[in-house]
Amino acid sequence: MLISRGQTFASVRCDRHAMTRILERHGEGVEKAAVVIDEQYVGHVGILSAGGGTLPSKSVDLLVIGAGVVGLTVARSAILRHPTLRVLVVDKEPFVGAHASGRNSGVLHSGVYYKAGTLKARFCVDGNRAWRSWCEEAGVAVRSCGKVIVAQTEADVAKLETLHSRGTSSGVRLEWLDGKQLEAIEPAARTHQRALWCSDTGAFDPEEVMLALADELAARGVEIRLDCGFERREDDAVVVGGETVKVGHVVNAAGLQADKVARLWNAGEHYRILPFRGLYLYGEPEIQFRTHIYPVPDLTMPFLGVHFTVTRGGRTKIGPTAMPALWREQYGGLSGLVPGEMLQIGADQLGMLLSDPTVRRLGMSELRKLSRSQLLADARALVNGLDARQWTSWGRPGIRAQLLDLKTRRLHMDFVVEPAERSTHVLNAISPAFTCALPFADHVVETYLPFGR
Ligand SMILES: Cc1cc2nc3c(=O)[nH]c(=O)nc-3n(C[C@H](O)[C@H](O)[C@H](O)COP(=O)(O)OP(=O)(O)OC[C@H]3O[C@@H](n4cnc5c(N)ncnc54)[C@H](O)[C@@H]3O)c2cc1C
Q: pLDDT over 90 for what percent of the chain?
């Protein structure tokens, strides 16, 4: 199908990957799209915004760098509180959610894992509820599939107890399952003695959410400029897409690039973002698990181990892995390669592998998963009768932006936000930041933005 510049069209039928390709080719011309995602959803109209041309706003109250879920929800929270604010969101890519926000597992997490007192624990439970009601209002489907956490050993059962008490103290609804009850919920899953059932966990399509969010923002008067990268700071102005815009306050929500952007405001100086690449292995379309299946995670690691997730459209996939990447946007081949960045990140990754036993364990276990057979071997521990021949297609990778504290040489496990001169820097919007985004954005706006309550 051909889309010409400025054309408003009623319906584009495509799968999620085809939609991405269309947007990549026609980023400047696409203004509205009704999309079919995963061949199942018909008729959503997303305003994707047109890039190109000169910026209408030469002066704004709030500039948000990054049209990922953090940037868009911060803009939303600000405009809801202060409807007269002039808000501009810019992104260097031609469509919203081009990085982590459009390339994640699409799991609406329940908040079972996080220690009370952390920002993740605080926002995940609220975020789950907030997205459910937002999705209902926006007409975005949520699959209420729930999730089981299964044990493989006696030691895992003891760790499940820890998760149970962490989760219930944060307000997550959890139930113990014996083998029979587990089988009734998900016949494919297997466990050692007991499993935990989190009925609040769900699935949505992150790209669909991002489109609907952009749509809402446009309707509320927020300007979103795509293909319009932030370039530099100049006194009370910034240069974006080659043009100077006067700004009252800047929110840096640049994901993988957030530390580099922050440095221009002398913020985040003892941090660096390390990229971790996540791959997905899809089952044949006829494999349709009813629920997500997760192992008991190693709670000292930032990632959750090999698991099965169900997409909003009903496909089942294994992953994501969490392999250290050598540059921030290393999705495949050499694209996005920045040689200086590779040297720096390579040195950091190596330094951590040598000095931090947790990272060393993580690196070794992730390295194995580059092999499909090893990944399947780990996955096989969670289910009955997995047939390798039915798990052959790799999905689009996503890259996690994980903050390294350069003083302690440790990975940061919670959100990090730093204020600086007339700016706020979101430095560690780690998983499950998608789930947490709505209340997290309220927190950022209420705590750091200067526009009053
Ligand atoms: C593989 C994977 C699986 C995950 N699974 C889940 C899950 O199931 N559930 C969940 O809740 N969370 C999940 N997460 C976490 C979640 O997706 C991310 O934490 C979240 O999307 C981060 O959002 P963000 O807006 O900070 O970053 P991003 O989505 O990366 O957005 C940052 C944006 O900034 C833009 N940008 C960068 N530099 C500039 C510049 N100079 N000028 C203009 N724009 C710029 C980028 O183009 C990008 O669009 C997962 C993440 C990954 C990678």
A: 66
Ligand 1 pocket test target in 434, 435, 436 with most atoms within 8 Å of CB: 434
Probe residue for ligand 1, chosen from 24, 48, 91, 443 as the CB with the greatest number of ligand atoms within 8 Å? 91
CA 23 to chain centre: 19
CATH 3.30.70.330 is the classification of domain 145-199+280-321+369-396: no
Q: Among 74, 99, 208, which is best to mutate for testing ligand 1, by the most ligand atoms less than 8 A from CB?
A: 99
Ligand 1-lining residues (CB < 6 angstroms): 65-71, 90-93, 98-101, 104-107, 109, 229-230, 253-257, 278, 320, 398-400, 429-435
Average pLDDT in the 160-171 region? 93
Name the helix (H) or strand (E) containing 259.
helix 258-263
Burial category of 369 from C-beta neighbours within 10 Å (exposed 0-12, middle 13-18, buried 19 and up): buried
Distance of CA 75 from the midpoint of ligand 1 (Å) = 15
- Please report, in angstroms and rounded to a whole number, the separation of the first and last CA atoms in the chain: 47
CA atoms within 13 A on the CB side of 243: 16
Could you tell me where in the chain the CATH 3.30.9.10 domains are found?
A: 145-199+280-321+369-396
Return the H-helix or E-strand segment holding 126. Answer: helix 119-138
Do the beta carbons of residue 224 and residue 89 sit within 8 Å? yes
Predicted TM-score (pTM) of the model is 0.90
Asked if the bond preceding 320 is cis, omega within 30° of 0, the reply is: yes
